[in-house]
Design a protein that fits this description.
The protein has 203 residues and is α+β, with helices and mostly antiparallel strands. The chain has 1 helix and 12 strands; from the N terminus they run H-E-E-E-E-E-E-E-E-E-E-E-E. Strands 1, 2, 3, 4, 9, 10, 11 and 12 form an 8-stranded antiparallel sheet that branches. Strands 7-6-5-8 form a 4-stranded antiparallel sheet, with no helix packed on it. The longest helix is centred in the first third of the chain and has 30 residues.
């Protein structure tokens, strides 16, 4: 007859009840977090700096040639990438300084003629390569033709610029300004801050 024993048999393997705590390397984690934080701050500062340099350059308008879009006394923001790495187009409003000339104040005008084109003003109408311009900019009220009464051929790095105001006369129609070289253009105007507090994009 088989007898049942109720005695608890000893375990072959005894589990350890001791708890082991591993100390984390908090110093390395802290240094890694500081490094990542420093890189993020540096990247944000670089982006902000580039944004100010290329898109936040401020120029003050000193005449009425761009009325009513840009009033005298207002401030414009200039994208200095345009004209350097980004091409300019007809209708763009640009800021330029006249190199090697007596006047050093900034001019703000709209591009009407592009490099390589022939520009002429006849009967108040702007002609590009002999064809009246009907798109891009409004040029149907050019009472004064100036030097553009005869065809003006632009070189590979020259632009013909006009003011928006019908009464404006300080633009490429005058011999004092004439054709604008690419090196004289400092950028494209994209935003304006009017003297009365109004703001708006420039097109």
């Amino acid at each position: 007859m088989k007898l049942f024993s109720f005695r608890r048999k000893p375990h072959r393997y005894r589990r350890s009840t001791e708890l082991h705590f591993q100390k984390k390397d908090t110093t390395a984690d802290r240094r890694r977090a500081i490094l990542i934080w420093s890189i993020e701050i540096a990247a944000a500062a670089a982006v902000a700096f580039l944004a100010v340099v290329f898109f936040g350059t401020q120029v003050r308008c000193t005449d009425d040639s761009m009325q009513p879009r840009i009033e005298s006394g207002s401030t414009v923001l200039v994208n200095s990438l345009c004209g350097r790495t980004v091409p300019l187009h007809r209708g763009d409003v640009v800021v330029f300084y006249l190199e090697d000339r007596s006047s050093r104040h900034p001019y703000i005008r709209r591009i009407a003629g592009l490099p390589g084109e022939t520009v002429q003003i006849s009967d108040g109408q702007l002609l590009i390569n002999g064809t009246p311009l009907t798109k891009g900019i409004k040029t149907d009220s050019l009472a004064e033709a100036g030097i553009a009464a005869q065809p003006v051929t632009l070189s590979s790095d020259e632009y013909f610029v006009l003011g928006d105001s019908p009464d404006g006369d300080e633009d490429s129609r005058t011999s004092e300004i004439g054709n604008i070289r690419k090196s004289e253009i400092k950028g494209k105007v994209w935003f304006t801050l009017l003297s009365d507090g109004r703001t708006g994009f420039v097109n």
